[in-house]
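Regression check, 6-O-phosphono-beta-D-glucopyranose case 483:
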Amino acid sequence: MYFEKKSEFPKDFLWDAASAAYQVEGAYLEDGKGLSIWDEFVRIPGKTFKGTVGDKAVDHYHRYKEDIALMAECGLKTYRFSIAWARIFPNGKGELNEKGINFYNQLIDECLKYKIEPMVTIYHWDLPLALEKEYGGWESEQIIDDYLNYATTLFQHFGKKVIYWITFNEQNVFARLGWTLGQHPPGKINDQKMFYQVNHHINIAHAKTVLAYRKMNLGGKIGVSFAYSPSYSLDCKPENGLAKADYDDLYLYWYFDIAGYGRYPKAAYNFLEAQGYAPTITKEEEELLKAAAPVDFLGINYYKTKVAQSNPIDGVGMDLNANNSGIKGSGKVVGIPGAYKNPSNPFLPTTSWDWAIDPKGLRLGCRNLTSRYDLPIVISENGLGAIDQLENGQIHDAYRIEYIQSHLIELKNAIQEGCDIIAYCVWSFTDLLSWLNGYQKRYGLVYVDRDEKEDSGSLDRIKKDSFYWYKKIIETNGKDLEE
Ligand code: BG6
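Current build output:
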């Protein structure tokens, strides 16, 4: 839509940058921390790029003061980070690890010292290994109460200081990669029935946690983050229009409708039920999901859009060989037989990992969510994974600036069009470990000197050009974006 006069970002807009515990902290065995499923999974040969492990990561555990001082220098209003469950409960439940509580208390206090609002993700994929060994982790209903106990422990200890809570990061990614593609723990391939059941357990854990949080009356806000890739129909052929509706229901609204309405979308449910994959839902669960909806905000991790095309029942499925190499064009067309497939978009450039770069897609996505749910939106991740070159001690990442700038311009347009966007988190603040892509795929505003080898580099922090650029954007509350 065209507006002659451009609007501004709201005065209290939360300029943020994000991380996740496993990707930055390191100290994987320190101060009583238990092992997580990722500590084990990365040691299976061939699972991660060049066999990278997160034992040391970028050593945020020891350098958080330096990192938060850099965030303050950049002007961040918020810092989104996740808590490692196995630092709080080394066995996932039972005895509490006071040293873990202390660490996050210090991290939160350090943020508050600089007036940086902490935004906490309760679960960003690093399940305590003990729960996986005891009852299969997310496969069992037992996980629901253990997660609830962990989450409420966090609310008890940090709830007076933390206003923004995110129950889960991208269940649509970690469940799919864990139970259908074998690329995340527990490494199961094509177990469709369990994938949807796991996802249902996560939904119930989310709902119980939202209700428990509200009961505690702490005055903050609680939401959830999904990976969000809005779609276009390949063309105006009616069957491709329907394929888009199938993609939206099965890949997007399957998750968002739980957060927004507390129910699954009907067409997707019927399709999965007919295939024998739909989760088992009790009456009590139905009521619980409804009672917890809507969340206070929808978190979206936005990196790309998808194209939807019809896909016959004997058509392509999920491909196990995703592009984790950084070699453009090595990704394959994937889909759900009998519903849709996702060919590439000839109108959009891509990253070296074949992710379509589509700033307008972010605006479109925010518009779609606003029309459907009319809820506040947190852009909980957005950024560019790229290979950075250190030249004379500097990183000239004009490509990252261009990426973030173009997305922020469209975000501003979305706000003008009525979307209630409250925060924007650049992924990521420092460089960090990309779960499957090692350290060659860098996202940070701050470079960290290390590579895939655990003993490599000084771990020194070097501000990239994008750091200075983002600082200026925050200082002017996004006024100079178009320059
Ligand atoms: C999101 C995750 O899926 O995307 C992050 O929440 C992740 O943890 C980010 O790092 C980028 O993905 P990748 O695979 O490029 O590291």
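Comparison notes: Residues 20, 23, 169-170, 173, 227, 301, 381, 385, 427, 434-437, 441 surround 6-O-phosphono-beta-D-glucopyranose (CB under 6 Å). The mean pLDDT is 96. No diff flagged against the previous build.
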